[in-house]
Every structure is written in structure tokens, then in C-alpha cells.
UniProtKB/TrEMBL annotation:
It comes from Kribbella hippodromi. The keyword DNA-binding applies. Keywords: DNA-binding, Transcription, Transcription regulation. It holds the Pfam family MarR. This is HTH marR-type domain-containing protein.
Length: 182
């Protein structure tokens, strides 16, 4: 009887070698696996978003305003969990790059709506193409049905984790951690 699981045997067949020692390999640890996959995805997606003002946050602004339509600056900041001061600087940079415009809100002349420009729409299409290529590279060892299952299962776990311990605002979290270190 073999001590190799069917999953490890399938991984070996696809070019992934398990560790050689007989003890439980670090590769079997959930934390290690999540960390490695996250690190690879974070590096590859950062490269895919290189040159975009605000990087991932800039992408979120473009993607949200394209899919959901114009949004008030404060509403967008709240939805994306971005501190409103940080959002102001981010929008300044995106506006300088001619990717978004701030337009007066007809319902409230004091407020501004964030609207993607034509250049912003084109940039978003290119960024989405790059991010799909990044996902293909990171998940390349999985076939299409495995990718769909992985995404579905990961989303379920993430939604449950977020329901238990939601991250409301990354800036607030960082400030709380800094205060705890004092």
C-alpha cells in the first residue's frame, strides 16, 4: 500500500514533487499554502498593475466605477474601505493620469461623482487582460473545472472569514496595530 495520497500522486504527475521526508511536509500546512499562493499572486498582480496610479486601489476605483456607474467620492471610499483622505490623493493621481474625472453631482452640488474617462475604460480593459494572465499563471497547474471549484470554495471560506472578522478599513486596522505596539 502506498503512502502517497491520490492528490499528491496527481500533483506529481503534473510536475509537482512532494517533499522527500516521511514526516508531515510543510506543504500540507494550510497556512503555508495560503501564504505561498498569496505571495505569488500579490507579486504577479503588482507587476500587472505597474504604472497604474494607486496600483490595486486604482484598479478597484476603475473597476467599480465602470461596473456600477458614477459614484460619489465619499460613497466610493466607504465601499472600497479606503480612508477618505487617501481616496482624495488616489483620485488626484487618477485624474492627473486622465483615467477618471470628478463631475458635479446633479443631486448635490457640493458632492463630486467619480466617472471613468475613455482612457480609463481602455486602461481597465488592458488591466483586466493582464490580471487574467496573472491568474492563469498562478492557477496554471489546475484544469478549468479545478479552477472553478477552487474559486468557489475559496470564496465561501473568505466570505465566512470576513463575516466573523470583517476588515472595515485597512487604515483603521493599521492605526490600531500601531497603537497596540506602543
Amino acid at each position: 500500500m502506498s503512502s502517497t495520497s491520490p492528490e499528491l500522486a496527481a500533483g506529481t504527475a503534473r510536475g509537482v514533487e512532494p517533499s522527500g521526508n516521511g514526516s508531515a511536509p510543510v506543504e500540507a500546512d494550510l497556512g503555508w499554502a495560503l501564504g505561498v499562493v498569496f505571495r505569488r499572486y500579490a507579486k504577479a498582480s503588482a507587476a500587472a498593475l505597474e504604472g497604474l496610479p494607486g496600483g490595486p486601489r486604482g484598479y478597484q476605483v476603475l473597476a467599480t466605477t465602470m461596473s456600477e456607474g458614477p459614484k460619489r467620492q465619499l460613497d466610493l471610499a466607504a465601499q472600497l474601505d479606503v480612508d477618505r483622505t487617501v481616496m482624495t490623493y488616489l483620485l488626484d493621481d487618477l485624474e492627473k493620469a486622465e483615467l477618471v474625472q470628478r463631475r458635479p453631482d446633479p443631486a448635490d452640488r457640493r458632492a463630486r461623482l467619480i466617472v471613468p474617462t475613455e482612457q480609463g475604460r481602455q486602461a481597465l480593459c488592458e488591466l483586466e487582460r493582464r490580471l487574467r494572465a496573472t491568474e492563469d499563471e498562478v492557477l496554471g497547474i489546475l484544469d478549468e473545472s479545478e479552477r472553478a471549484s477552487f474559486r468557489m470554495l475559496l470564496q465561501r471560506v473568505a466570505m465566512k472569514a470576513n463575516a466573523i472578522d470583517p476588515l472595515h478599513n485597512a487604515c483603521t486596522l493599521a492605526e490600531a496595530e500601531d497603537a497596540a505596539d506602543c
